[in-house]
C-alpha cells in the first residue's frame, strides 16, 4: 500500500506552538508513509502572514482518499472524537493523488 501525507512543516512555523508534525502522526502511520511538506519560502504571503496548509487528507494507491477536518495525529486516530470521510473507488482518489504528484514534481512540496 502506498500512503502519501503532506504536512504543514516537519515542525511548526516559527512563532507557533512547537511540536513535531511527524511525531504527531504516530509511529505506525509515519513508518508506512511517504511524507512531504510545503516549505514556507514557496508560499504566498500577505504582509507578514504566510499561507498555511489546512488540508487534512491521505491518499492510498489512488483508490482510497481520507478527508477530514481533524488534524491527522495519533490522538485523532486513537482517543479523540473526530469526523472524516473515506472515499474508495471512483475518480476522486486518483485525481487528488495526481494533484499531489504534480505538487511534488514541480517542487511546491518537498519530501521530508
At a glance:
This protein is of the alpha+beta class and 112 residues long. It has 4 helices and 8 strands. The mean pLDDT is 81.
Question: What is the element layout, followed by pairings?
Answer:
Blueprint: E1 3-7, H1 21-25, H2 27-31, E2 34-37, E3 45-46, E4 49-50, E5 57-60, E6 64-68, H3 74-78, E7 84-88, H4 92-105, E8 110-111
Parallel strand pairs: 1-2
Antiparallel strand pairs: 1-5, 2-8, 3-4, 5-6, 6-7
Explained architecture:
The protein is of the alpha+beta class and 112 residues long. The chain has one domain (3-111). It is 26% helix and 26% strand. The chain has four helices and eight strands. The chain has a six-stranded mixed sheet with strand order 7-6-5-1-2-8, with helices on one face. The protein has a two-stranded antiparallel sheet with strand order 3-4. The chain starts with a strand and ends with a strand. 13% of the residues are buried.
The N- and C-terminal alpha carbons lie at a distance of 19 Å
| Helix content class | 25-40%
Low-confidence parts lasting 5 or more residues at pLDDT below 50? none
The fraction of residues in strands falls at 25-35%
Helix tally?
4
**Main sheet properties:** 6 strands, mixed
Order of helices and strands: EHHEEEEEHEHE
| Cα shape | globular
Question: Structural class per helix/strand content?
Answer: alpha+beta
Mean pLDDT: 81
What is the radius of gyration computed over CA atoms, rounded to a whole number of angstroms?
Answer: 14 Å
Number of domains: 1
Oligomer: single chain
User: Total strand count, please?
Assistant: 8
List the strand order in the largest sheet. Answer: 7-6-5-1-2-8
Amino acid at each position: 500500500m502506498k500512503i502519501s501525507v503532506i504536512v504543514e512543516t516537519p515542525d511548526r512555523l516559527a512563532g507557533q506552538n512547537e511540536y513535531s508534525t511527524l511525531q504527531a502522526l504516530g509511529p505506525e502511520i509515519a513508518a508506512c508513509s511517504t511524507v512531504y511538506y510545503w516549505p514556507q519560502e514557496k508560499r504566498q504571503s500577505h504582509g507578514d502572514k504566510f499561507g498555511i496548509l489546512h488540508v487534512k487528507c491521505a491518499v492510498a494507491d489512488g483508490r482510497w482518499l481520507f478527508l477530514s477536518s481533524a488534524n491527522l495525529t495519533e490522538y485523532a486516530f486513537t482517543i479523540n472524537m473526530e469526523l472524516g470521510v473515506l472515499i474508495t473507488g471512483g475518480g476522486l482518489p486518483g485525481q487528488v493523488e495526481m494533484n499531489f504528484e504534480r505538487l511534488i514534481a514541480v517542487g511546491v512540496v518537498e519530501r521530508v
